[in-house]
Amino acid sequence: MPLTQDQLAEIEAQRGQTTPTLRATAPGMENRLYTAHPVLDHGLIRVIDYMGDDAAICQAARVSYGTGTKSVSNDEGLIRYLMRHWHSTPFEMCEVKFHVKLPVFVARQWIRHRTANVNEYSARYSILDREFYIPAPDALAAQSTVNNQGRGELLEGEEAARVLDILKTDAARAYDNYEAMLSTEGQKGLARELARMNLPANIYTQWYWKTDLHNLFHFLRLRADVHAQYEIRVYAQVMCEIVADWVPLAYKAFADYRMGGVNLSATAMDCVRRMLKGETVTQENSGMSAGEWREFEGVLGSG
Ligand SMILES: Cc1cc2nc3c(=O)[nH]c(=O)nc-3n(C[C@H](O)[C@H](O)[C@H](O)COP(=O)(O)OP(=O)(O)OC[C@H]3O[C@@H](n4cnc5c(N)ncnc54)[C@H](O)[C@@H]3O)c2cc1C
């Protein structure tokens, strides 16, 4: 667990306080609030605050004076309709704020999602902790031979040991030098904003990250996907579990239409129609490139 006893006590104290409210609360999210979910070797993600629930989506869609909810099946049908037809603004009525601790190289991918509000730990103001991401054996893999943006077989034996040794030694040496440069014993000591520049990208940073449900779904669609890098995907997977507890109906629709659904081009749809008529469709007579055909076969599960 990457938390100290003091940090755990702070979280427990926060969870021990309750305040009566007229605002809508989501029982699944109340259970998650403040609790830290460990990710990778030193990372975590936890919910700091949230606004709205499934009913808030329906309320906004119906522009209702009350809660906007009808029967569960009615609400579920409405939410599925909104998701199916890309009617996205009702989902923007729900907001969530996360506290995330993550390696800097993961943060660089994450920050590309511009539709969020971010406040990061300041390494100009504070000294970074000696915490570096070192992949577990099942994440230490070779370059993929079929995907330039991916990894292939696991490294094993001596090679795995050599790579791990390099990662650990480099991290330790960089941090030792960071401390040496900051040191004021008989010297001025280098400014924190400069000393940090020698630290590797596997050092951990932290931020508060706030977004709305529509943009969170967009983030999760890209980052919980198998094509996303493992180290960001594991955060996205925990977030999926949290969102499923928070807005169960909206998450179910998202999992069905976005995570489990596919987009087909007009050419691909034409091929599907021809196949349904019993025609033999091949890449050569499909009108698709080899790459498009491969992905199409993957979608149909016939590759
Ligand atoms: C598997 C994978 C591989 C990737 N590889 C690379 C890579 O090699 N190199 C690289 O640089 N990036 C890469 N990315 C990052 C990717 O290009 C996007 O920057 C990232 O996924 C954020 O997506 P987004 O812009 O849709 O999200 P957000 O920034 O959250 O934006 C959400 C949506 O809001 C709209 N929007 C937001 N800001 C603007 C704007 N200023 N103008 C117009 N519309 C806007 C767009 O519709 C956008 O889709 C990769 C991402 C993935 C998932």
TrEMBL record:
It comes from the Bacteria. One of its GO terms (molecular function) is flavin adenine dinucleotide binding. This is Flavin-dependent thymidylate synthase. PROSITE patterns: THYX (PS51331). One of its GO terms (biological process) is dTTP biosynthetic process. Homotetramer. FAD binds at residues 89, 112-114, 120, 212-214, 218. It catalyses: dUMP + (6R)-5,10-methylene-5,6,7,8-tetrahydrofolate + NADPH + H(+) = dTMP + (6S)-5,6,7,8-tetrahydrofolate + NADP(+). SUPFAM superfamilies: Thymidylate synthase-complementing protein Thy1. InterPro entries: Thymidylate_synthase_ThyX (IPR003669), Thymidylate_synthase_ThyX_sf (IPR036098). It is an enzyme of class 2 (transferase). Keywords: FAD, Flavoprotein, Methyltransferase, NADP, Nucleotide biosynthesis, Transferase. Its cofactor is FAD. The active site is at 223 (involved in ionization of n3 of dump, leading to its activation). DUMP binds at residues 109-112, 120-124, 196, 223. Catalyzes the reductive methylation of 2'-deoxyuridine-5'-monophosphate (dUMP) to 2'-deoxythymidine-5'-monophosphate (dTMP) while utilizing 5,10-methylenetetrahydrofolate (mTHF) as the methyl donor, and NADPH and FADH(2) as the reductant. Binds 4 FAD per tetramer. Each FAD binding site is formed by three monomers. Belongs to the thymidylate synthase ThyX family.
